[in-house]
Every structure is written in structure tokens, then in C-alpha cells.
Amino acid sequence: MDKQNRRQFIRLAMRGTLFGGLALMTGSLLFKKGIPLFGNNRYSGPTVWQLDPAKCIQCGRCATNCVKTPSAVKCTHAFSMCGYCTLCSGYFKPGSKILDTGAEKQICPVSAIKRNFVEDPFFEYTIDETLCIGCGKCVKGCGAFGNGSLQLQVRHPLCDNCNECSIARNCPAGAYSRVPASDPYLIKGFGKENP
């Protein structure tokens, strides 16, 4: 091989390596963002992880298996479903005789649920997401005796959107899936909506 052909071969090899590396980096980035490269997906835009509250069994693994501490999964409140009960089973521990706001009476281990008087006999319950650890105890209580207005959701500004979500991998109910980033929340009883 003469010098001219050798130089041309080296240039082509370097270009091929450069473009191949760029293609791999782009493909990796698209995969991390949830954009499918191949396949028959109906949705081809970016996707995010979300759990379906209709499938969720409140096992507590969202709090312990997330790579984030505290978990990117938070309790949300579908206000339009709420009964604003005096005896909220998502707020009080089962069997509470006195309905005051003492920490020993609350089902939430970190006091992330705030109880505010609306009018007799109604109270409004709000979630302090900075405190919430995603354990699901309040959701389980609300679903057992209430109307299920408390639900767990992945909060996307907190989530790393890992390629393989460690919570999804360990979810015994198979409640996690990838959903379009443009419509990222699944609310039980309402289909998709942004809480």
C-alpha cells in the first residue's frame, strides 16, 4: 500500500471511529431518555417511569428500592375523589380513639400528611412531598377504609429515569411501566392526568 492510499485509509478509519462513537453515544442517550431506537412502539417520544396506582399493592418497596434517598416516589392526593373525612384512614392509625394531630396517632411515619380544618365535619389532607418517603402506608390505609384518593406516583423532577428502574425490577405487582413524558401521571379513577 502506497503513502496516498495509507493516508486515505487512516482518514476513513478515523472518521468511521468518530461517527461510530457518536452513534453509540447518541443511541445510549436516547435509550436513557426512553426513546425507542427500533421496534413497533406506538409512541416514539421520550418516556418516563410511572407506577399504575390501580396495580399498586403498597408493599413499601418504593421507599427502599429507589436509587434516590428519599425515594422519588411520593404520595399524591386526588382531591376530587376525597371525602374530606373526620376519621381519615390515610391519616390516622387504625383504632385511634382520639382524633388529634399527635404524631403517635398518625399512620405516616414521617408526618408528611397535614390535616387542615375546612368546616364541620370536613378536613383537608395535604402531602408535604419534601418529607414523604414513598412507603405507601397512608395509601394502604386510604384504600382499605376510604375511597383511595391517596396514591403513589413517581415525581419526575426527582427521578433519575434510570434505564432499568430498581423499583420496577423489584415491584411484586408489576405496577411500573414506561409512559409518555408528555402525559406522565396515572391517577386511579381518572385515567391519565397531572396531579
Describe the structure.
By secondary structure, the chain is α+β, with helices and mostly antiparallel strands. It has 2 domains: 32 residues; 146 residues, no CATH class. 25% of the residues lie in helices and 19% in strands. It has a two-stranded antiparallel sheet with strand order 1-6. The longest helix is centred in the N-terminal third of the chain and has 30 residues. The radius of gyration is 24 Å and the shape is elongated.
Rg over C-alpha atoms, rounded to the nearest angstrom:
24 Å
Low-confidence spans: pLDDT under 50, at least 5 residues? 33-41, 191-195
Average predicted local confidence, pLDDT: 81
- Which percent band covers the strand fraction? 15-25%
Number of strands: 8
Cα-to-Cα separation, first versus last residue:
67 Å
Sheet with the most strands? 2 strands, antiparallel
Overall 3D form: elongated
Number of helical stretches of at least 4 residues: 4
Number of domain modules: 2
Kindly state the percentage of residues in helix: 25-40%
Structural class computed from helices and strand pairing: alpha+beta
